[in-house]
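Try this one yourself first.
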């Protein structure tokens, strides 16, 4: 038996495979495919204080080896979450993490305080990297002073595991990784999507209503891997790798580069069982390679 357990902040994850926010609904959409509780954790669809309708359609477009989205944080708000989603996700026997978003620091803080009262939520992913909203999101995560201020304020309001989700749309990912660590984050997750665009040459219109959107999928993997590697060398807190992880080989690359856990995103749109297949593949790889503990693989390339 291989030990797959990893610790991030105050949370023990039974294995390092998590799902990326916005690609796994609230878990129940996947119940017919596999036992969601097998995963190390699930990151729920981004939540805001008030309900949001999101951006106008079209807000998804396929690109070579990738996907553009401009959803704009559509969700029903925290009141609905507490009443209708929380009771259901509480039944999972895995870590449930809430991805929080806001226009202003005060909104992030209020959300963090509300989530702090929910016993069955293991942690918060502080989303300062959504590229599809006019206020909040990436505007916080690409400005060092704002990233620092919001992380500090949310840390003061939240006492369980705090993960800060970083934007790749910056010059130095290391600077933002260090800011999160300095302001008390337990972990960083990266990367959120890269700002991109596409044009439909039949209509000669942008493919997305918002013109630009966030690029994910295999196209971003080498960039994500490079950033995870850089960040993991720069901070002591655990790093969660995200970006084009389609199979267990991809996940193993991220772990060997320094990620303590991974989030599976776009892959779940193609194969709803991608995350659990990745988990099985990691276990098989470790057994074949003679590793008894996943921790021996984390950052392996940095030790040789
Ligand atoms: C969105 O809802 O637009 C995507 C969320 C994100 O990229 O953080």
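Now uncover the answer:
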């Amino acid at each position: 038996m291989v030990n797959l357990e990893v610790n991030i902040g105050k949370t023990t994850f039974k294995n390092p495979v998590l799902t990326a926010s916005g690609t796994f609904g609230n878990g129940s959409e996947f119940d017919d495919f596999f036992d969601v509780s097998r995963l190390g954790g699930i990151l729920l669809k981004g939540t805001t204080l008030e309900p949001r309708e999101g951006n106008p359609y079209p807000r998804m477009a396929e690109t070579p080896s990738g996907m553009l989205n401009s959803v704009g944080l559509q969700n029903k708000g925290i009141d609905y979450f507490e009443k209708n989603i929380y009771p259901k996700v509480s039944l999972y026997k895995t870590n449930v993490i809430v991805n929080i978003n806001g226009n202003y620091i005060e909104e992030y803080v209020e959300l963090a305080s509300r989530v702090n009262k929910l016993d069955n939520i293991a942690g918060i992913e502080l989303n300062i990297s959504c590229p599809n909203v006019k206020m909040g999101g990436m505007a916080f995560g690409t400005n060092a002073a704002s990233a620092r201020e919001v992380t500090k304020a949310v840390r003061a309001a939240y006492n369980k595991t705090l993960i800060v989700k970083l934007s790749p749309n910056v010059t130095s990912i290391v600077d933002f990784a260090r800011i999160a660590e300095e302001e008390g984050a337990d972990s960083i997750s990266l990367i959120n999507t890269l700002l991109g665009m596409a044009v439909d040459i039949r209509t000669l219109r942008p493919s997305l209503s918002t013109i630009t959107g966030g690029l994910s999928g295999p196209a971003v993997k080498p960039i994500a891997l490079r950033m995870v590697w850089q960040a993991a060398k720069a901070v002591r807190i655990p790093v969660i790798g995200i970006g084009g992880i389609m199979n267990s080989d991809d996940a193993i690359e991220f772990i060997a580069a320094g990620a303590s856990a991974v989030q599976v995103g776009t892959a779940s749109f193609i194969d709803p069982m991608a995350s659990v297949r990745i988990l099985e593949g990691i276990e098989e790889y470790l057994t074949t390679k003679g590793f008894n503990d996943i921790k021996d693989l984390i950052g392996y390339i940095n030790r040789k």
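Discussion: Residues 22, 46, 69-73, 127, 129-130, 132, 192-193, 214 surround succinic acid (CB under 6 Å). The radius of gyration is 18 Å.
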